[in-house]
Amino acid sequence: MDHPVTPRISSFTFRNIAFRYALSCRKPFEVLYMSNNSISRRSFLAILGLTAFVMQIDGLLLAEPQDVLATKSERIMAYVGTFSSPLGDVLPTQVDLPPGNGRGIHYFQVNHDSGKMTTAGFYEMGTSPSCLVVNAEHTRLYSSNETDRVGEGREGTVSAFSIDKADGHLTLLNTVSSGGDGPTYVSLHPSGRFLFVANYFGGSVAVLPILADGRLGKATDIKNDAGEIGPTKATHAPPGSFAFSGHDRTHAHMIQTDPAGKYVLHVDLGLDKIFVWKFDDQAGTLVPNDPPSISLPPGDGPRHFHFHPNGRWLYSIQEEGSTVVLFDYDAQKGTLSPRQTISSLPVGYAGSNFCSEILVSSDGKFVYAGNRLHDSIGIFSVGINGELKQVGNEWTRGNYPRSFNFDLTGRFLYCCNQRADNVTVFKVDHKSGGLEFTGYYTPVGNPSCIVFVNIGEHD
Fold this sequence. Notes:
Blueprint lengths: L11 H13 L3 H8 L5 H22 L11 E9 L21 E7 L6 E8 L4 E6 L5 E11 L4 E9 L6 E8 L5 E6 L5 E6 L4 E6 L11 E4 L27 E6 L5 E6 L4 E8 L4 E11 L6 E6 L5 E6 L4 E8 L4 E9 L10 E7 L5 E7 L3 E7 L5 E8 L5 E6 L5 E6 L4 E7 L6 E9 L3 E11 L2
């Protein structure tokens, strides 16, 4: 069932006020008792009524907070990053060998009602812009160019683009070194002043400043991962699994800040670690936290992570172990404490599988985990304490789902099926968490990543 797009009935300021108040009133009896146990009956009922009203607003405005980013009068574009050339200097352990069927960055117009994508063009790139990120203003797009090689160190590159609000087309601003080999992930600091890069083959992460015009500057910091490489057999591998991909050297796979931008976290699949850094947002440098990292089960291979909207829980997906791990996150100290490990696969599955993407729904009620080879998305409900329970598993209608993403309304999920050369579209049931295939297949060669941009009102 489609959910109508929420009208713009309030400002972001009011929404934030409502959110904070609703959070403080989720246990009104306890709050009132603790604050003033001699409160009058009339005052109690008045405040309780206001609490109920605000919690209704909470449900309206926060159940699908992305909805404020798009209305039916606005034009939404989807940008798909692809593998557009084969990987070079392939390691003996490399199992993911995309032939390079993409053309670069493909872009599409998105239908608000159906979720269907219509081809609008592409920016030709032969360097595999495999990961994309868009700034908060939807005016700039950045890509990690995974198969590019520049300079004596044969480093990868990152590109900056401006987005034409008239038609969504891209204009290249500049391209700079990523600070390592095989950049596979890019993300932005909440301030919009820095870009973070994870270099998979180089086993390093870098910080790049973003200049006033959106162009990228030279790296202000580069950190090289080091430590003992994990075993080739994952601790939590499914029965009969031969999944082995990255335990041969260091492999930085993802980097992103915490919600406040105070700390930066990155995973190294080969080391089975999540590193935590204090971030100096003046100098653009990373300082090891105390402790500097936390270990995952040997061989499981952490790949991606996603914070819950409350900022207190982090979910990490393990590529070779086919697991999701729940961590409690201390935002003041930047520390992680593991609390639950659950399989990303249906009960009883046996054989090989490589996990890929993990996302938390915008309302925080569900977690979605990608399974390559099993070619599915595991669906989990989030309990009141953050723990997960598997409630479904949806076939992606394609081969090797490398990543997926929600559109700006949260009503649709788009899955990039790398080996099937297509993107498939699903309706999201916000009550059950379920995914319903829309019947839409969009052909894209070796799709790797999809992001969405609001380019403004129709003429």
